[in-house]
Write a structure and sequence with these properties.
Oligomer: single chain
Structural class: alpha/beta
Distance between the termini: 53 Å
């Protein structure tokens, strides 16, 4: 097994059984959908040269043979996938294989195919789930702030009900009308308004970046009110700005019962976004856990056949009994390891009700580390976990905090290349009744000009298709819902440190 300069681990496999299952597996592997694992099929064997998988392998230029012993001669072969579902073939493969070659039997091959399929579906749906559902449903329809989507010719494409209430217009009067005519009664874009403020919409079109400004906006025939307007560009696949989203906030509005109602609605929508973000994170976890799950299963299969062979005789020697005990101990450890990985993935993917209770923050961090430890190893990162000796009990929701820390850890991993260093530290600040968690990396860092925007929804410095800009926004929402604070310190080229402070349980209520 080799590791490429890009960080991908290459696994060279051969297939015994060139039928339909082989053909399906060849198609699946050709997608190359795993970010840290590259599987190369270098040989296919079947006693029937007319089998469809056997023929497909020949078309792809893959070595083919009718005698599986020929596969053992392939250079750098890591393992063989047995797809004949024939127990005799499997046993013969195990008995004759070289020591360096692993054997994956039919059912395990089916598990790998299922994991590949799940990963593919999660990745293909990622952009559609986050953009279509989050933007249209969450921002446009349900957000109580004024939201307007404007085309590059300044005509209004979409608005929410709060915007219509603010400007005192119907939807038919607004859609298709230039924003400068609707709001200010002008015949041309408002480059500079009477108060000296530059139009944030025009600024975003010029620079391609988010902009903001304070404008006096008529309130449906009533006295004008001041609004803090923030604009965000919407880009196409070529990186060109095709629309601009404006978010209006009434800066003069007092905190009333209406605000509390709005907060409850936003929390409900945040729960949906958190669950969708967990599904995206699950796709990343599945990709890194496929290989880790297969390793202990392969060991279990090997030991079970050795034990079966030893138990054929009626009597066992003392040495054989000792070996059996050692084998059973190793198998128990490997089963526990598999169970821990699967349980972690299942609990992470399951949507649960919000349940605030006293929880040990150290246990939440440890569960996150269990899920991402293999990915850290695959990326060749140095990792240090330093948890407080005493339990740090906070009043919160386990799943939300788990997602919060996982997003920060994923960001740290993606910011570093091989040889980077990741540190997670927890401590108690007794005099302030706070629990503090630091997540420190040695990645590329965050430019100073971006630090004020990293928690804004949909703000991202990643290339198109590599990020949605919702991760840190969700982290910020989770921390605030737990009455905590989050700080960031970053030096370009040196790394970033996120610090989260949460009130200890007795001080959280």
């Amino acid at each position: 097994m080799n590791q490429r300069p890009s960080g991908k681990v290459t696994l060279k496999l051969a297939i015994v059984g060139g039928g339909r299952a082989c053909k399906f597996f060849l198609k699946l592997v050709s997608l190359g959908n795993l970010p840290y694992l590259q599987i190369d099929i270098i040989g296919v064997c079947d006693i029937n040269p007319e089998a469809e998988g056997f023929c497909m392998a020949q078309q792809l230029g893959i070595y083919t043979t009718t005698d599986f012993k020929d596969l053992f001669k392939l250079k750098d072969l890591d393992g063989i996938i047995e797809l004949t579902n024939n127990r005799d073939v499997l046993v013969e493969l195990i008995q004759l294989r070289p020591a360096r070659v692993g054997i994956v039997e039919h059912n395990i091959g089916r598990l790998l195919r299922n994991l590949f399929t799940v990963d593919q579906k999660l990745r293909s749906a990622e952009q559609q789930i986050v953009f279509e559902k989050a933007v249209r449903d969450f921002l446009i329809q349900q957000n109580q702030q004024c939201i307007v989507v404007i085309n590059t010719d300044f005509t209004i494409e979409a608005v929410n009900d709060a915007y219509l209430t603010t400007v005192g217009k119907t939807r038919d009067e607004v859609i298709g009308t230039p924003c400068y005519r609707l709001i200010h009664g002008l015949d041309a874009p408002c480059d500079t308004l009477s108060n000296g403020m530059v139009c944030p919409m025009l600024e975003t079109l010029r620079t391609g970046r988010s902009a903001k400004g304070i404008h006096s906006v008529p309130m449906g025939g009533k006295a004008s009110a001041f609004h803090d307007i923030v604009t965000y560009p919407v880009r196409n696949s070529k990186g060109q700005t095709v629309r601009v989203i404006e978010i209006w906030m009434d800066i003069a509005q007092e905190i009333t019962s209406r605000w509390e109602k709005r907060e409850r609605e936003l929390k409900s929508d945040l729960n949906k976004l958190i669950q969708e973000d967990r599904l995206i994170s699950l796709g990343k976890l599945v990709a890194s856990c496929v290989h880790e799950i297969n390793n202990p299963i392969q060991g279990l299969l090997t030991f079970s056949h050795l034990m079966k062979k030893m138990l054929v005789t009626d009597q066992l020697t003392d040495d054989e009994i000792s070996e059996l005990r050692a084998f059973s101990g190793i198998m128990a450890d490997e089963l526990e390891r598999c169970g821990k990985i699967i349980s972690g993935l299942l609990s992470f993917s399951r949507e649960t009700h919000i349940a605030f209770k006293d929880i040990n923050l150290n246990e939440v961090i440890s569960s996150v580390v269990d899920l991402i430890r293999h990915r850290i190893e695959l990326q060749d990162l140095s990792f240090r976990l330093d948890l407080a000796r005493e339990p740090l009990f906070v009043h919160g929701d386990t799943n939300r905090l788990q997602q919060c820390f996982l997003n920060l850890v994923f960001n740290a991993i993606e910011a570093m290349g091989p040889g980077g260093r990741l540190e997670i530290r927890s401590t108690g600040i007794t005099d302030q009744r706070l629990a503090e968690v630091e997540i420190r990396d040695t990645g590329h860092g965050i430019p100073r000009k971006h630090l004020d925007h990293i928690f804004d929804p949909f703000f991202t410095t990643k290339a198109m298709g590599e990020g949605t800009g919702m991760g840190l926004s969700i982290v910020y929402g989770v921390v605030k819902n737990h009455r905590g604070e989050i700080k960031v310190c970053s030096d370009v080229g040196k790394g970033t440190t996120f610090t989260i402070q949460l009130p200890l349980a007795s001080a959280a209520r």
